[in-house]
Specification:
247 residues, alpha+beta, Four Helix Bundle (Hemerythrin (Met), subunit A), Nonspecific Lipid-transfer Protein, Chain A, 2 domains, 4-stranded mixed beta sheet, 54% helix, globular
């Protein structure tokens, strides 16, 4: 089954928009607000995390190595924004240069195959979209509005594919999770089903709009959330989703 094809330039455009919107929340939101999707984190912690991840991706792109920038631990607004901006500006600068050269197949250090620049623009688009959702919800934005603002259908469908084809196999390879002995088939409107696990007949089927399904797989919403349905064995579906299929 072919994976969804999303042009790297579309990921870059989505990343640029996501970074700008996330920065707005960091600049004007309540930094001490808890982030439900990242237990123990405040909005300030989220901003520092995302800035660090941008530095991690930039090192993979430009220096071809694994590296995560360190931070002092302070959480004042000026410092959070400065750290976030430094990571975002460096990452976007590198990605825009790659786009201008139409060199998305350029070699890069990556967390998983393919070891190309295209990996990072996709990964950081998804990283930013998910954490924009987290940031908006931390500020009391209604869940449906947060979802509509942070995750369009194509981005979410590609994010589901990323979990099934990159993150889950990587988690198994790193021995963070055992290979699933139950399988969950994921069905979203207008797209080919995606499978988590290798059992021939799926233990359960999760159906819903791609953004809501993606949020469920990232443990942001429950399988009982409005718009999601589970057929087959609901306990098997819950076990698959509860397992560390993502970092």
């Amino acid at each position: 089954m072919p994976r969804p094809v999303v042009d790297p330039r579309r990921h870059l455009e989505g990343l640029e928009l996501g970074i700008a919107r996330l920065r707005e929340v960091l600049a004007h939101g309540e930094l001490a607000a808890p982030v439900a999707g990242c237990p123990g984190w405040s909005l300030a912690d989220l901003g520092i995390h995302v800035g660090s991840v941008y530095g991690f991706a930039h090192a993979g792109l430009v220096e071809h190595r694994e590296f995560r920038p360190e931070h002092t631990g302070a959480r004042g607004r000026d410092e959070v924004l400065a750290f976030f901006d430094a990571g975002a500006d460096a990452l976007l600068g590198a990605l825009r240069a790659i786009d201008a050269a139409d060199d998305w197949n350029a070699e890069a250090w990556t967390m998983a195959p393919p070891a190309t620049a295209a990996f990072w623009v996709r990964r950081q688009h998804h990283e930013t979209s998910l954490h924009l959702w987290d940031a908006l919800e931390s500020q009391g934005v209604p869940r449906d509005k947060s979802t509509a603002e942070a995750l369009d259908d194509d981005t979410a469908a590609d994010g589901i594919d990323e979990i099934a084809r990159m993150f889950y196999p990587r988690q198994v390879r790193l021995k963070r999770v055992e290979s699933l002995t139950e399988s969950l088939e994921i069905r979203t409107p207008g797209r080919e089903p995606v499978r988590l696990g290798t059992v021939g007949t799926p233990s359960a089927v999760l159906t819903g709009a791609a953004p809501t399904v993606l949020l469920a797989l990232w443990k942001r919403v429950a399988l009982e959330a409005p718009g999601l349905t589970v057929s087959g064995d609901p306990r098997a579906a819950a076990r698959v989703v509860a397992s560390p299929i993502t970092p």
